[in-house]
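Fold this sequence, please.
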Amino acid sequence: MPAPSRPRKSLTADLRPLRASPPFRRLWFGSTVSSLGSAMTGFAVMLQTYDLTHSSFAVGGIGLAQAVPGVAFGLFGGSFADAVDRRRLVLLTSSGLAGVSALFAAQAFADLRQLWTLYLLAVVAATLQAVDGPARRTFLPRLVPTDLIPAGVALNQVSFYISFLAGPLLAGVVTAAGGLRVCYLIDALSFGASIYGVARLPAMPPQNGGARPGVRAVAEGLRFIFRHRVLAAAFLADIDATILGMPVALFPALNAERFHGSPQTLGLLNAALAAGGLLGSALSGPAARVSAKARAMLVTVMVWGGAIACFGIARVLWLDIAMLVVAGTADTTTVIFRGSIMQAVAPDRLRGRVSAVDYAVGNSVPRLGNFESGAVAALTTPTISAVSGGLATMVGAALIRLAFPAVAHYRERPEPAPSTVTTSM
């Protein structure tokens, strides 16, 4: 195992994992490029759905269509990740996702204009992502020293938010110039970088042998989470934030109501949330050093909820953008805390299954949140949906703090774990 690195005190993100591990560096750059393409597809699907229906409920329905397989298959995907070579599994799922992106492009070039096609492709993509995501999240502890894992989590968030920020902005420009079909095509091509990064990794079999995938394996992972109350509270806190406070499905309707439906303005709203996430990731140095991560996570969840409620009230573009930047900053800090807690607590033999729950919480549950916000908007107004969701998130975080006293006492003391850093280029 590599020797621990010298403690680092800085405001900015710690770049040492990129320098210490060439495999992690290749994986990080490849994932960043692919995530940029995926963010463009997410923008395109949302806008194409709204153009076909002019309904926030239909836009939220895309989130529901993705969330169900994301949760159902994600849990079983984690058990597969604990049973097979994780590198080979990700190569297979990434190739499948590239094919789905090509089909998105094909339907756009053919001008099918069929809502069911978008829903079907979204379900297939979510199913593949539910296996791909948990398996990818097991790579980090095998590629960087144990003491650099929080920095690696933060860098992965930097990657995500670079894509989340640039993707909507680029997609808005590309859509205005060449149409949605070009967004889909760029995404299909971007998977080449991700596949290359994974292909160059060493083999990633589970340590200490693999567990047979299935219901028993999934149940073992869930029991582990429920026994570790701080880990359970961390997952519940993120569920609270994303189920009740996720505003993305409201963006098309609020953009039409407040800013005349311009694609460029819609891109700015999406990009503002991402800009906050990138800011929080880039200035993640202090977050990585916080030992009371569970308690701090509840604070950032409350900041997220307050910012979303203020976004719902604001009716000028600069203030909307400012509130979304604050929300994005709080959100990415929440994810850094949750990811660090998970990597510190979960052993390698269970890491795929615990990562599957982390994936479901971080990727599938927000889609349920978009459905919830779209449904509330359909029953009331988009403004009421945003404000009530933000306030409810703050109340939920306070209740979690009361229900889980262990949160106040948790201090991160990760135990040494086997870690391999390959230095070959």
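The chain has 18 helices and no strands. Residues 296 and 337 are 8 Å apart (CA to CA).
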